[in-house]
Amino acid sequence: MPESGGRRGWRALLRPSVSQAVVAALIGGLAFAITVQVRDDGTDDYSGVRGEELVELLKSLDTANERLGTQIDDLTATRDDLLSSTKRSEQARKQAKLRAEQLAILAGTRGATGPGVEVTINDPGGQIDSAALLDAIEELRDAGAEAIALNGVARVVAQTYFLDDDGEVRVGGREIKRPYVITAIGDPSTLAEAVRFPGGLIDGVVNRGGSAFVTQKDKVTITALADVKTPEYARPTS
After folding, report:
1. Would you list the DSSP string of 157-196?
2. What CATH number was assigned to the domain covering residues 111-222?
3. What pLDDT, on the 0 to 100 scale, is given for residue 46?
4. pLDDT tens, 67-81?
5. What is the pLDDT at residue 65?
6. Main-chain phi, psi angles of 85, to 5 degrees
């Protein structure tokens, strides 16, 4: 049965011509030759190098390795020094920050919290003057109080003054109303013992016609701040 024109066309396309076969053979041979050449060129062959040259080559490699090892050691030491310096700087920064915070508390320029006591002084006869209050403050300081405030409004520091003013007491320029409440941060038992000590704060208040009692607290918070004055004459030393 004779083939149709369509089938004859497909068979003609699928059957390679002589020229196509020749081109394919040439490409295959060229690929084989390139592969053999690459393999030959890619193989390190020192069979033609003299022994003296090999020795010199090995010596140069050893010298290069030693030089690289020294550079690595130097870089490692530099890195370790930098890390150590960074740690020291960070520790110094933290210590400086902590010290600044501690000094701010002692100077009364920052609020403070911690264990302590609350001392309440009742003065119905108005006999507790500024001198008596200052004595009470000094007893607490001597017992180790680290931060002190009066009636929650007057922070007491080294520069704080006590003044009698028409029957009232002024502390650091602030008028303090009765009853007086002294808040102190420190070891509660030591501060309380100092207040109760015979001849101490409570006895002194009683002798003036008043009364006083102390309460130990696990947490005392002082928010009052001292007034900061710029020195007029004093200057930092160089």
Report:
1. -TT--EEEETTEEEETTEEEPSSEEEEEES-HHHHHHHHH
2. 3.30.70.1880
3. 54
4. 888 888 888 888 888
5. 77
6. -65, -40
Measured CA to CA, the distance from residue 22 to residue 28 in angstroms comes to 10
Q: What pLDDT score was predicted for residue 8? A: 52
Q: What is the pLDDT of residue 34?
A: 46
Amino acid at 212: A
Angle between helices 188-196 and 130-142 (to 10 degrees): 140
Domain ranges of the chain: 52-107, 111-222
Q: Do 110 and 219 contact (CB within 8 A), yes or no?
A: no
Query: Can you list the residues of the chain whose pLDDT is less than 50?
Result: 1, 9-10, 12-14, 18-20, 22-24, 26-27, 29-30, 33-34, 36-43
Using an 8 Å Cβ cutoff, are 117 and 216 in contact? yes
- Closest C-alpha to 164, from 134, 128, 129, 135: 129
Q: Which residues pair with 211 in a beta bridge?
A: 122
- Backbone φ and ψ of 155, nearest 5°: -80, 130
Residue among 158, 181, 164, 161 at smallest CA distance from 172: 161
Q: Is 182 left (phi over 0), alpha (psi -120 to 50) or beta?
A: beta
- How far apart CA 99 and CA 14 sit, in angstroms, is 93
| Residue with tokens 């680290």, as numbered in its chain | 146
